[in-house]
Write a structure and sequence with these properties.
The protein is α/β, with parallel strands linked by helices and 245 residues long. It has seven helices and 13 strands.
């Protein structure tokens, strides 16, 4: 059967990273690669086909070139050894399999100029992969816990967007973002440009200069099911890349 990889009518294949966590489903209690459905619905509503990428595998440019785009999803704290720091008391238990897999995915995606949307942990991971560092506990820096008000409760943060940025083209120059994070960008990696901040100075979005589409957001756009503009921008970039090949 002939491949439909170049079929312009095919929805673009958008890879999404996953958690590796103990899970219960049916009669089973076992480790599983899982992901919040909101991400899948957002990609589908934006016109893409979601494909789950487990944190186990051989992820290089040669093995992910079949993807049209990539979403680095949120989740656990990145091991601070990746950016040369000792763990803060509040930093979560390291997840070496996921860290290793996702850092490899980022590098492969950058090599391929694969359109990428990096969400929360994903933005932090993108920054670290490019040589940046993190604040391991943002409340110590800004003096509030507004970005993570309670366990399993998203905080609403007004984000100011840089005029003329790609993000401003997508959402305008101000947006109410849903956040859930206690870490944030400290030293911003070379090549990344800060394009949005919160009132307390927290970096809320970055873009990679010279890339087809690499956008990192500290918030969780997948949580707003009525607004999939960021995912739609990713899907458009994925379609344009496919058409240009």
């Amino acid at each position: 059967m002939a491949s439909n990889a170049s079929d312009p009518e095919r929805p673009p294949l958008i890879g999404l990273t996953t958690y590796l966590e103990p899970a219960t489903f049916g009669i089973w209690e076992t480790d599983a690669a899982v992901l919040h459905r909101d991400y899948l619905d957002a990609v589908r509503a934006a016109g893409g086909n979601p494909v789950l990428i487990p944190p186990i595998g051989d992820w290089r440019a040669e093995t992910v070139a079949w993807l049209d785009g990539l979403v680095l999803v949120g989740g656990a704290d990145l091991d601070p050894r990746h950016y040369g720091q000792a763990p803060h008391p509040t930093t979560g238990t390291p997840q070496p399999l996921r860290d290793t897999a996702e850092l490899a995915l980022v590098r492969a995606a950058l090599e391929l100029d694969l359109p990428m949307l990096a969400v929360c942990r994903g933005m932090q991971l993108l920054n670290v992969a490019l040589g940046g560092t993190l604040h391991q506990h943002t409340p110590e820096i800004v003096g509030t816990s507004d970005h993570q008000p309670q366990v399993a409760m998203f905080g609403k943060t007004e984000v100011r967007v840089l005029p003329g940025s790609r993000l401003a083209d997508v959402v305008g120059e101000s947006v109410d973002a849903l956040c859930y994070h206690h870490q944030s960008l400290d030293l911003v990696a070379e090549g990344l440009r800060v394009v949005a901040t919160a009132a307390d100075g927290t970096v809320e979005a970055v873009e990679l200069d010279g890339a087809r589409f690499v956008l990192g957001v500290q918030s969780h756009p997948e949580q707003n099911t009525d607004d999939v503009r960021m995912f739609a921008a990713l899907v458009r970039a994925a379609c344009q890349r496919r058409e240009s090949r």
